[in-house]
Amino acid sequence: MNAPTRPTRMKDAEALSGPLDPRQMAEYRRMGWVVARGFFPPAEAQAIAAWTDELTARPEVPGEHMVYREDSLTEAGRRVIQRIENFCPYHPGFDGLVREGRLARAIDQLLGGEACLFKEKINFKEAGGAGFEPHQDQQAGWSTYADLFVTALVGIDRATMENGCLEMANVTRLPGMIGPEWRPLSAAEMAGFDLVPTPTEPGDVIFFDSYVPHASKPNLTKDARRILYLTYNRLDDGDHRQRYFSEKRANFPRTSSESRAWNTSFGCDDG
Ligand SMILES: O=C(O)CCC(=O)C(=O)O
Predict the structure, then answer these.
(1) How far is the CA of 213 from the centre of ligand 1 (A)?
(2) C-beta of 83 in contact with ligand 1 (< 6 A)
(3) CA distance 204 to 113
(4) What is the pTM of this model?
(5) Which residue has the least CA distance to atom 5 on ligand 1?
(6) Whose CA is nearest to atom 2 of ligand 1?
(7) Cα dist from 209 to 31, 34, 131, 193, 198, whole Å
(8) Which residue has a Cα nearest atom 1 of ligand 1?
(9) Is the distance from the beta carbon of residue 214 to the nearest atom of ligand 1 less than 6 Å?
């Protein structure tokens, strides 16, 4: 798939129409999340998988895309890729996908105005990759940047209950955090709802806001379960992407013991 050509992005008044239909919009308003099955047709989903392979094969260059690794839970002594972040500036295909075209317009619809990319990452969850404790993304210090974010989870590989698909809260939309920053949600904080396994196919998208509790289990199968996460805020709330990644590079160096401790204690990186 070539990078899409730049369509005119919607302004506030036009943001009510777009790729998401009224039923999907109503579901998002009710729950804070909605699944858009087959949002990307197979050819586009295959292109996203091919770009991911390209990115994985690239040598790491200091100051460019960031590759994080973790210990495999199933193979002692084996390090596996946990995630890659900050790759849009170095990959025109991903850059076009996340900033323009149907996906960006859907995010405009959900945010009710023009959106701005906050961060991008691919979680690899390779064979033996760890799960993620229940959390709301906003808990990861995101309030420093804005009060609301919407993430598009784009399925690269099939995500199943066996390989650690997302589990989403079946509670009506939460207006704020239900636990403190930087700590997974406790059983008491989650007393009013369950987390529902939500398998996805390549090309499916789950849109969810930064207050939706979610989690996932480890991948105990033999194959990777890669998912692309694109997180946006309203442009009115500022463009924070560069600051976010430079603060993250400074505060969570990939090789430091603090970084590893954080990953382990929260069960996730930073939302
Ligand atoms: O990829 C997963 O399994 C979950 C990721 C997640 O919850 C996060 O990055 O906040």
Answers:
(1) 11
(2) no
(3) 23
(4) 0.90
(5) 132
(6) 216
(7) 9, 10, 20, 17, 16
(8) 123
(9) yes
Structure tokens belonging to residue 100: 């323009």
For residues 254 and 266, what is the distance between their CA atoms, to the nearest angstrom? 16
- Domain 12-266 listed as CATH 2.60.120.10: no
Tokens 């260059």 map to which residue? 61
Instruction: Measure CA of the first residue to CA of the last residue in the chain; give whole Å.
Output: 29
The letter for the amino acid at 243 is R
Backbone angles phi, psi at 85, to 5 degrees: -130, 170
Scan for tokens 């149907």, then name that residue: 102
**Cβ–Cβ under 8 Å, residues 133 and 215:** yes
Distance CA 126, CA 62 (A): 24
Distance CA(215)–CA(74), nearest Å, equals 20
Distance 13 CA to ligand 1 centre (A): 33
Alpha-carbon distance 238 to 118, whole Å?
9
In order along its 271 residues, the chain shows pLDDT tens digits of: 444 333 445 444 444 678 999 999 999 999 999 999 999 999 999 999 999 999 999 998 888 899 999 998 988 898 989 999 999 999 999 999 998 899 999 999 999 999 999 999 999 999 999 999 999 999 999 999 999 999 999 999 999 999 999 999 999 999 999 999 999 999 999 999 999 999 999 999 999 999 999 999 999 999 999 999 999 999 999 999 999 999 988 876 654 333 433 344 344 455 5
**Contact yes or no for 109/16 (Cβ under 8 A):** yes
Which tokens go with 205?
Answer: 């998208």
